[in-house]
Amino acid sequence: MDTEDLTAELRRVNERNWDARTPIHVASRFYGVDGSRPAESWFAPFEWDDLGPLAGRDLIHLQCHLGTETVAFAERGARAVGLDISGRAVEQARRIALAQDADIEYIRSDVYDAPAAVGDRRFDIVYTGKGALCYLPDLDRWAALIAELLRPGGLLYIVEFHPVLTSLGPKPGPDDGPELLLRHDYLEGRGAIEHNATHTYTDGPALPPEAARVYEWAHGLGHVVTALAGAGLTITGLRETDLLPWPRWERMVRDQASGWWRLPPDDPRVPLLYALSATRT
């Protein structure tokens, strides 16, 4: 099997994994699709500042999963489209939007096929992130399709987990102290990373064994910026923040201003999330 065929098979494995995750996530407290977690809670205040007014703007949310964030865009007046590789996630996203009276079009498609999936439509805003880029093996190809989806002057906005966060690993080992340890690559280059986890990242039951495998790819911040610049986009902003929308580690404390979470004041301040703005000229 050549590299291209192997990568396609790994992404089909990921699709099966996300199909299996979907019913667990829908029932979880983490996502709160029963109304216990409002759509706005997934956003830091700076996101709305960076995005600007959304009323009447065409926006596509790539790798949208359940559409919990996509709903917030519709609530602010955007003509929102959500796109995801998981057919089961798209089904649930449509159901959630209907229950919240949110006018959103959802499309089941691999992100690499997004331009073909939307036809000749182009967008004022492409939004993606919070756990999306790690499932993409080829950032140059991804950046090129972003440029294709945007109208001239359109905005790409990424809010993504910082590679520092992903390199620290999900939790300490059983014999570790409270210190955060480097466990995974920050930089790209080693190819697909296989994870075989019994549970997904939310509360809820175990994944079926046949769908527990998932593959991720490391992307350093320089890799992301260089791919977008190579596609002809102009980087207009890059924020790094120590805030997260959920407590990754038990000792994280809630930030009163945003409702998000950060490490205790005495810990070193490290970036956990970044927000990147880029425009198509």
UniProtKB/TrEMBL annotation:
The keyword Methyltransferase applies. One of its GO terms (molecular function) is methyltransferase activity. One of its GO terms (biological process) is methylation. CDD domains: AdoMet_MTases. InterPro entries: Methyltransf_25 (IPR041698), SAM-dependent_MTases_sf (IPR029063). Residues 64-154 form the Methyltransferase domain. Transmembrane segments: none annotated. Pfam families: Methyltransf_25. Keywords: Methyltransferase, Transferase. The keyword Transferase applies. This is SAM-dependent methyltransferase.
